[in-house]
Amino acid sequence: MAKTKDKLYDTSDTMRPYVDRALHDDALHDNVKEAFNAAREVYAELIGNRNLTATAMRAASDKDIQENLRRAVDELRTAANRIQGKEDHGARNTMLLLVGITVGILFNPMTGPQTRQWLMDKVMGESSDDYSYTPPPATNGGASTTASTADAAADKASKPA
Questions:
Q1: C-alpha pair distances (Å), 3 with each of 8, 13, 16
Q2: Do 79 and 38 touch, CB atoms closer than 8 A?
Q3: What's the rounded Cα separation, in Å, for the pair 146 and 131?
Q4: How many CB atoms lie within 10 A of CB 78?
Q5: CA-CA distances (angstroms) from residue 63 to 31, 35, 37, 100?
Q6: Quick one: which of 86, 3, 69 has its CA closest to 35?
Q7: CB 50 within 8 Å of CB 44
Q8: Cα diameter, the chain
Q9: Each residue of 60-96: pLDDT tens digit?
Q10: Predicted structure pTM score
Q11: CA–CA separation, 42 vs 64, rounded Å?
């Protein structure tokens, strides 16, 4: 007997957020009302003194009926998502896609340097060389050159042979 009570309490705890949303969410109420109204319009247009074949032909060919059915399904889908607590992530996904494309363009080995230079010219102005970046000199085998080695190389180059 205790297992049945525990299952019931567990079920009521998991259902509580759904019931709260169904009772207190005004947007959910609006979605359900719109879906009901759209379905009622479809029903009123389809059902009359027609037989099943005529009703099916009208539903397949009448654009207004199809639009009302589509609206009813969309409203019910929105209501179901709201009651389940699902959120729309369209704006977030669009932003992530744009950031990904931008990063891909800026760090593309073929076009990245020219694109970054063009962007820097647009942002900083064409005559701005104050913020130019010069890469460090390449080193041989990972060995770093010291100031004395650089001075010795400069002295050797300046002496006449």
A1: 9, 15, 20
A2: no
A3: 26
A4: 19
A5: 22, 17, 17, 40
A6: 69
A7: no
A8: 113
A9: 888 888 888 888 888 888 888 877 777 777 788 888 8
A10: 0.35
A11: 9
